[in-house]
Amino acid sequence: MVDESIAPDPDLYSTQHSCYPDDWQSETTSIGSSIYRGLMQNGRRYQTLSNKEYLIPSDDQMFETYEAGHLVGLVLDSHRENPLFRSPIGHKPKHILDIGTGKGNWAIDVADMFPEATVRGVDLFPPPVTWMPPNCVLEVDDILNEWTWREPFDLIHMRIMIGSFDPTEWERVYKTCYDHLRPGGWIEQIEASPFILCDDQSLPLDNVLRSWGPNVSGCGERAGRHLDAIDTMKESIRKAGFVEIHEQPYKWPIGPWARDQKYKEAGTVNYQHWLSGMEGWSMWLLTKFGTPEPWTKDDVHVYVAKLRAELKNPHFHIYQRARRVWARKPMPNEVPGKTVEKEIKVEDD
Ligand SMILES: C[S@@+](CC[C@H](N)C(=O)[O-])C[C@H]1O[C@@H](n2cnc3c(N)ncnc32)[C@H](O)[C@@H]1O
């Protein structure tokens, strides 16, 4: 893995130009600027660092979506002293890693919270940040490459990595996390489901919003990237050797319909999250793996416009499931198999 820290420069995010004239490029700057330029497809910009296509674009609209998703999580855990994570890593962690950092929101907030720690965020595309705390390092790399970080981490975090890996790659990611945590260090992952649910009769059975989850997850399956990390991560984390596994389920309301003030606020932000996110979440999946045949860009635009119009209906009591799992790497004296595995399910509070 190449340790390629990217100095933030907003100009570099323009798709219109690169910083260097083409005839002046060394091999290195050429690689660097092509990473920033990405690949334009169906009006969206995608990462080019990995040869394997990643299904979600890395562009301004998607970074706005990530910002909104970050806020949904913060609002729902706003009653907690630390709304960013649950792993009990104490007050003096030294090294923290955020895999697939997106816009870097989580890594930046955690770096602010622990000024003595080094917090790294890594992603396939350079996060568009103009300022970050001095103890935060945002790096561009593919997490599937060999890791070159030498310091063992106290905490490795992942959020909304749904669809990023096939099952074998997921296994590798958890195993590599295990190997790179200090004994007693923690892994934490939070994932959301793409299915739009409704516990009462307020969303008609034939409403187009009900088609979204089956549609995108069907595409995910055909693409070999199952969109079910929310339901598989706990078992995968256990299989990788972690103990003391905790989980907390959440309901993320979509829209401001909930009576409770916290859920109303979270639903309002999550509504924006969905409005800005749906096109990007589905464009690659539907244009490559849509049925009965791959959709056109216009098909996707029309579908998303219909979904957006329905999302605006305040009478639909709709939500998506999310789940947080956190678990510990055993100490060397914890003999595998003899450890009494403490498993705790925390109810949505
Ligand atoms: C849905 S986004 C979530 C971003 C961020 N964790 C958040 O919650 O705001 C997933 C991120 O994982 C990154 N990603 C996917 N595959 C990756 C890989 N192999 N190595 C590094 N980052 C990856 C994507 O580029 C994307 O930014």
UniProtKB/TrEMBL annotation:
It holds the Pfam family Methyltransf_23. It comes from the Eukaryota. GO terms for molecular function: methyltransferase activity. InterPro entries: SAM-dependent_MTases_sf. CDD domains: AdoMet_MTases. This is S-adenosyl-L-methionine-dependent methyltransferase. It comes from Penicillium cinerascens.
